Amino acid sequence: xxxxxxxxxxxxxxxxxxxxxxxxxxxxxxxxxxxxxxxxxxxxxxxxxxxxxxxxxxxxxxxxxxxxxxxxxxxxxxxxxxxxxxxxxxxxxxxxxxxxxxxxxxxxxxxxxxxxxxxxxxxxxxxxxxxxxxxxxxxxxxxxxxxxxxxxxxxxxxxxxxxxxxxxxxxxxxxxxxxxxxxxxxxxxxxxxxxxxxxxxxxxxxxxxxxxxxxxxxxxxxxxxxxxxxxxxxxxxxxxxxxxxxxxxxxxxxxxxxxxxxxxxxxxxxxxxxxxxxxxxxxxxxxxxxxxxxxxxxxxxxxxxxxxxxxxxxxxxxxxxxxxxxxxxxxxxxxxxxxxxxxxxxxxxxxxxx
Length: 354
Hints:
Blueprint: H1 5-8, H2 14-26, H3 44-52, H4 57-74, H5 84-100, H6 107-126, H7 155-167, H8 172-185, H9 189-193, E1 200-201, E2 206-211, E3 215-220, H10 223-235, H11 255-268, H12 270-275, H13 280-294, H14 296-303, H15 313-316, H16 321-332
InterPro entries: DNA_brk_join_enz, Integrase-like_cat_sf, Integrase_catalytic, Integrase_recombinase_N, Tyrosine_recombinase_XerCD
Keywords: DNA recombination, DNA-binding
Family: Belongs to the 'phage' integrase family.
């Protein structure tokens, strides 16, 4: 609606507009309710493509399966049409499907489904396309998280894992490089898959890691790992701005390589399959070793954790890059360019470089 300039009066301040929006939100009234006929809420098919465009690649991978489900089942429905019990019923279908696919409880799948639904509705709320009162996802609870059953893998078992990877499969060189990268850096799977040749600093033996939460950090690595990553990039013709980890034919690997790797190791070492060990266990293993030998502050920095609940003390006991380089030097038994004098506490078993 256009208001004649003679009747519009002075423009309200930003503070006044914010206060008005807050009051309307508390009353369950959308600004669109105050002008003429109410505007119909958009459909899932209209909103989800817009939501996808705003998400990081990692978040999109997590939610995309559930976006597909919402589009297939409710694509033509408006966002204000489904009730809470309908979303709850769909969450139960997700749980049953995950259990049929091999998940023990289906909790993770349900948690991601609820997160995806909330993401869609939050996007619509922020644009005043629906009212908070018309958002059923607010009322659907995520399942309570259980404590992780992962633990630090003992040195001999870690050595057995590395041996199994090096002696089986169609590309042991790639698999050993993956294991060593995760063992030395404690990076997440997404961090390893995002590494590019441009992220390697061979002079200082540093790798730039980009992980969840849009975090980015330089992580020290051993000269051996750096040498093999550079060689891998050359041999498999990885472009400077493209993914580094690749198959022999030059095609970038995906998360499926990790699935196949651990399935194969599980065939060689049954306890790996029984315990459900994955690449994230290496992160637990390395960070546990770092904490035991170098303390909490160093382990926190090594993991790139920004835990706001750690208290004020964490502000004064921060670690730094040279300390992490010293940890890597001890871990691998190799001097590091950032460490002036080679330290000498205990070592951790790392995957052999091939």
